[in-house]
Design brief:
CATH class: Mainly Alpha
Order of helices and strands: HHHHHHHHHHHHHHHHHHHHH
Mean pLDDT: 78
Helix content: 55-70%
Radius of gyration: 22 Å
Distance between the termini: 34 Å
CATH superfamily: MFS general substrate transporter like domains
Number of helices: 21
Length: 470
């Protein structure tokens, strides 16, 4: 599946530059300068001379807790991808039904909105480390039940739904925990970037690994690997991260978890600024999945060889990874902020090339370029974490994750439906046109909701008061 710095000072309607923000540093990074901010010291007590201090992505890996989170993410994600492939094969072997086999994949997306909406309060109500470890253990238990030969197909699908419902709670909690581990500045942005790169890479590596495993193991044998990866992830998070208190108390008057979750969603979506930023994450992602959803019929339409399908499915991820690495390592926080709105506005335009029904080489270039357009999310991450107050951060990020996965699934379904009535290349080009129009409207809304010309501290405090007063 896929996908998480304020703007220049000379652009009055865009958010302030993240380099000016001075969040309270966590102990792990107290001695680290702000990556990409140049030699300027962040305060009078900043280290006077540490020329060898790591910068950029290296600075993120210098934080021991992040290394544990990164390793846990890599292991569990590879396990999930392998289990998706193995479970699909297992369901097909048991039923011989292509519909149920495809439904196994769809059930990995649909429950996200349920878990992300109804259980989002978990992310703020309980300590992050406890939530992450319990989520991993619950997923390991669900997948372990899949190994029982007597488990019926309906049971397999129900367990798949349960794992998918847990996923947004885990991801949202981890996203919020990164602000505790890396701070709210540039290290957080680069840490999120690294986790996204792993997610994109896992799609390329995980399916290949799963395919190899299925040549030597039964589907249930391959699923066993996922149980092990979830358990290893739980161990890494339990012993590799600090135990921190929960962000929020039991809420207004000790309400129920469901009430807190729904109240958090109302507060987050009710704030115009946060809502605009969320939609800028969601809507481009909804339209950019059209060529991937229709890769098989498009390869058939242009008479491409069988291997072309794999290339069409990988091209966008390759473009995304390359652009994310470049933007994260070569651009300063200020410049990453400068490109957010322009790249978001034009990122879907490459899909218009599909209108001429391009051959395989040109189609691959178009997909790689469209994938590179997602690099605006690096700067958008900083804007989002600045806009959301700490006590709502876990719920906001859980909702962000759930919405992102849901709209991508919806985008795939709508693309498939449209392809029943129109040629595939026209559907993809149409997605580019409609998506660009939506992106332009959202860019205008994000500009309108940008903080005024005030200090970063004043802007952040004002944003916090605005949201929590609702």
């Amino acid at each position: 599946m896929p996908t998480d710095s304020p703007a220049p000072a000379d652009t009055p309607r865009t958010p302030p530059a993240p380099a000016a923000q001075v969040p309270a540093p966590s102990p792990e990074r107290a001695a680290l300068p702000d990556p990409g901010s140049g030699p300027t010291l962040r305060g009078p007590d900043a280290p006077k001379s540490e020329p060898a201090t790591p910068r950029g992505y290296r600075a993120v890996f210098a934080v021991a807790e992040f290394r544990a989170v990164f390793a846990a993410h890599l292991l569990s994600l590879l396990g999930v991808v392998v289990s998706e492939l193995a479970l699909t094969v297992l369901v097909y072997d048991l039923t011989g039904s292509p519909l149920l086999s495809a439904l196994t994949f769809a059930l990995g997306l649909l429950p996200y909105i349920v878990g992300g909406t109804l259980f989002a309060g978990v992310a703020d109500r309980y300590p992050a480390r406890r939530v992450l470890v319990v989520c991993d253990l619950l997923c390991a238990a669900c997948v372990a039940v899949m190994l029982v030969p007597a488990t019926p197909v309906a049971g397999l699908l129900a367990l798949r739904c349960l794992v998918a419902a847990i996923a947004p709670v885990f991801t949202g909690t981890r996203m919020a925990a990164l602000t505790d581990i890396l701070g709210e500045g540039d290290l957080y942005v680069l840490g999120r970037s690294l986790l996204r790169i792993v997610s994109q890479s896992a799609m390329l590596i995980g399916f290949g690994t799963g395919g190899v495993l299925l040549t030597v193991l039964s589907p249930r044998g391959a699923i066993t690997v996922t149980v092990v990866t979830f358990l290893c992830s739980a161990v890494l998070l339990r012993f590799g991260t600090q135990d921190r208190p929960a962000r929020a108390t039991t809420g207004d008057g000790g309400g129920t978890l469901l009430k807190e979750s729904l109240s958090g969603a109302r507060l987050v979506l009710g704030d115009r600024r946060i809502r605009a930023l969320m939609l800028l994450f969601w809507l481009p992602a909804m339209f950019v999945v059209a060529p991937e959803a229709l890769a098989a019929p498009y390869a058939d339409a242009i008479g491409a060889p069988p291997a072309a399908l794999g290339l069409l499915l990988c091209a966008m991820a390759v473009g995304h990874i390359g652009a994310e690495l470049f933007v994260g390592s070569a651009l300063s926080p200020r410049n990453r902020s400068r490109i957010v709105l322009p790249v978001a506005a034009v990122g879907l335009l490459p899909l218009l090339v599909y209108a001429v029904r391009p051959g395989l080489p040109l189609a691959l270039a178009v997909l790689a370029l469209a994938g590179a357009g997602a690099a605006y999310v690096i700067g958008l991450d900083q804007w989002f974490v600045d806009a959301v107050p700490q006590e709502l951060r876990g719920r906001a990020m859980t909702l962000l994750t759930a919405g992102l996965m849901t709209v991508q699934g919806l985008g795939m379904a709508l693309a498939g439906l449209a392809a029943e009535f129109f040629p595939v290349h026209q559907v993809v080009a149409g997605s580019g046109i409609i998506g660009t129009v939506c992106a332009l409207l959202l860019v205008a809304e994000v500009r309108r909701t940008a903080p005024g010309p005030m200090s970063d501290t004043e802007g952040r405090d004002g944003a916090d008061r605005h949201v929590t007063s609702r």
